[in-house]
Amino acid sequence: MTRTTRGWIEFAIERVLLLCATASVLVTAGIIGVLLAETFGFFSEVSVLEFLTGTEWTPLFSEKHFGILPLVMGTVLVSVIAMAVALPGGLLSAIYLSEYARPGVRRIVKPVLELLAGVPTVVYGYFALLFVTPALQIWLPGLSGFNALGPGIVMGLMILPLVSSLSEDALHAVPNGLREGAYALGSTRMQTAVRVVVPGALSGISASFILAISRAIGETMIVAIAAGQQPRLTLDPTVPIMTMTAFIVQVSLGDTPAGTLEYRTIFAVGMMLFVMTFGLNLVSSWLRRRFREEYA
Amino acid sequence: MSAPRPTAALPATRLIGDRLLQSMGVIVLALALSALGALLWDVFRDGWRRIDWPFLTSFASRRPAQAGIYGALVGTLYVMVMTAALAIPLGIGAAVYLEEYGARGRLSRMIEVNITNLAGVPSIIYGLLGLGLFVRAMGMGRSVLAGSATLALLVLPVVILSTREALRTVPKSLREASYALGATEWQTIWHQVLPSALPGILTGLILALSRAIGETAPLITIGALTYVPFAPDSLSSPFTVLPIQIFNWVSRPQAAFAENAAAGIIVLLLLLLTMNAVAIVVRDRFERRHA
Amino acid sequence: MTVSPRLVVRPAASGASLEDRPAKVDVRGLSFYYGPTRALSDITVAMGANLVTAFIGPSGCGKSTFLRTLNRMNDIIGDTRVEGRVLIDGQDIYAPATDVVLLRRRVGMVFQKSNPFPKSVFDNVAYGLRINGLTRSRSELEGRVEASLRAAAIWDEVKDRLHSSALALSGGQQQRLCIARALAVQPEVLLMDEPASALDPIATQRIEELIYELKKTYTIVIVTHNMQQAARVSDATAFFWLGRLVEFGSTETIFTNPAEKLTEDYVTGRFG
């Protein structure tokens, strides 16, 4: 093979690989492009003000209202319940695994915890609807069959490993020298953990919290199955609600022709969802970078 | 390496707080693990009786007793194979470029940041992308191809990240030895780096696919059907997948359908278990051979 | 351990003196930069054909960097800059039109820590031949592999296990395998970066005997921090210090009657 032939082949291969790498940029562009295009169409018929501040969401009825607040409220309600489970639970789990547990225990517990994260969300939806909600109904007789509480708890369970694993990484990155200094002054593990290690890992832990919130907001199947199909502006966790994601599923299950306003609503809701999660992810990344700089 | 531990000689009162935190940690973990146990037990209890050969080989039906997951299984197979076919070259190619060629420059860093961001986008948004781009703009319709393309994009960040990890484990000395013999960059990558990183790459691929196999929301969004009394026969055919079939059954009020759903879940979990077991076996066998 | 000033030094290569030998590798005014840092300053030295030239000096003084400029391995690192010229058979290897791949076939390299590929013994040696398309048939390939393994004095030890993993060999055997691998593509110059530093004395001795044999066919440039090794093995020696070439001459001269005080201090063990 002559040198020039070889040179050309190498050049071509490198270009092809570069193309593969830029594909990922195209994906982002695609997402934003598709969302923007349909959202523009949407807002040519619906006012932005009504969308963002309206309190009724009835796009599929004959009398249409396009206020997204009920959907946002439903999403937030479920997410708050989920976070009430996942954040303290995950942090406690992380502290235990990082500061207390023996290496043997960690080696067994961590993979099992990862199993929780690996269960498909449909399965969690089944669990929420047919096990957790009936179980909760024993203590809360007024609990509706579809509600925010059951799926919220299950979602928290699903996200707990994420918080635990990321927080544990953050705790681990705190240099042992800090711990030893505290122990040498006579601190218990709890005092060291609470006063020295956790504050030292705060950016990393916050990053994991924010990522968890983002995950909860974007979750679909658990709420589509178990939370209900009634958009409602409420803080009551015992009644059926509807989240942004569940709405998109509901419309997709039906036969909505392309190009109609109803079709465009799922993109508008999707845009809202994207903006919220993307914003949260950016904050989380920024926090994680700051954390890495502290302990680089 | 675990954190150092203080010696045991502390007054009892101070230890209360210590023990309390420890107990809370243990309780949380116990609760989480028992919840997982409850889930598995519940699903098995509800569904194991329903699993029999007719269940696995029948199509969906309006009557729960006659409904089976065959259509969904075939659909899952088609979609998984196609997703792999799309995601593997794209993902490995991107990872090789970023890791081997791309350490220079702002373009690479921009791509890396972009991939990290994509990894955090909710899966249903990928469904919207697939709907707008593949189903409509590119005219693929609600087909296996559109579904696979959507899932391929969804798992692309995972494939890229895990392949890069695998490439990083290849020692620099290997590359240097190859260059010193007059090999070009691509020859070195193809003959030395990729074979050496193969177990890690394979493991990452299997993990990405096991994520894809459980995905429901994006496929519903692009229009995968929920009632499919047939098996797909081509890339352009409409289809359903196992998680969607499960979702369909769970959404029906009749208790018999719930039983079907539980049975479907058992099959899905077994599939996942197998895939992960294969990943672990692959990784171990390759590590031993090249150790 | 003090170094005796009376090192065992082989007499200069019989016949022609150093100056009469044609320079296989001729370095002129070479300076090398890692980013803004200058690692090598204005090196000028000529390595004679079929001679062993050793580069000695304390660690970190640029010997390995210099070696790597001779086969342009530093190109891989990125953000490096070269000034001056490196002529091999009269041609500047840093000229823009240089085929670097071909260069690395003509100038082979053996590394400090042996780095056999995680493949069989046979595939290790055959690799260079395969990727450069140097053989046309299987039997020709096998012949070249055997010849290289013989040249590296390892054939007898591996001939019954050609297809077993190279990683199962001992450290000394792996290093000789790496030498065989480098020889397979029939280079003209062989660069050796502290080839025996990770080996035990017996393995080291075998490598040194091998070098003595190999110089009949190849021009060898060896970097070493072991002065006795340099004295035993080389015909010419260059003393590096802090990125500069302090002195260059026949081994006998450098070790028994150096011109520079710095050189004398180093070879007598007063520092380094």
SSE blueprint and pairings:
The complex is a heterotrimer of chains A (296), B (291) and C (272).
Chain A: H1 3-43, H2 48-53, H3 69-100, H4 103-118, H5 121-139, H6 149-173, H7 176-184, H8 189-200, H9 202-218, H10 221-226, H11 244-253, H12 261-294
Helix pairs in contact in A: 1-12, 3-6, 3-9, 4-6, 5-6, 6-9, 7-8, 9-12, 11-12
Chain B: H1 12-47, H2 53-57, H3 70-101, H4 106-119, H5 123-137, H6 144-168, H7 172-180, H8 185-212, H9 217-222, H10 242-250, H11 255-290
Helix pairs in contact in B: 1-11, 3-6, 3-8, 3-10, 4-6, 5-6, 6-8, 7-8, 8-11, 10-11
Chain C: E1 23-34, E2 37-48, E3 52-56, H1 63-70, E4 80-88, E5 91-92, H2 100-106, E6 107-110, H3 121-131, H4 138-151, H5 155-158, H6 171-184, E7 189-193, H7 201-214, E8 219-223, H8 227-233, E9 236-241, E10 244-250, H9 251-256, H10 261-267
Parallel strand pairs in C: 3-8, 3-9, 6-7, 7-8
Antiparallel strand pairs in C: 1-2, 1-4, 4-5, 9-10
Helix pairs in contact in C: 3-4, 3-6, 4-6
Summarize the structure.
The complex is a heterotrimer of chains A (296), B (291) and C (272). Chain A has 296 residues and is an all-alpha fold.
Largest sheet of chain A: none
Specify Rg of chain A, calculated over alpha carbons: 24 Å
Question: Which second-level CATH architecture of the domain at 22-117 and 190-267 in chain C applies?
Answer: 3-Layer(aba) Sandwich
Sequence of secondary-structure elements of chain C: EEEHEEHEHHHHEHEHEEHH
Helix content of chain C: 25-40%
**Total beta-strand segments of chain C:** 10
User: Roughly how many Å apart are the termini of chain A?
Assistant: 47 Å
Helical residue percent of chain A?
Answer: over 70%
Protein structure class of chain A: mainly alpha
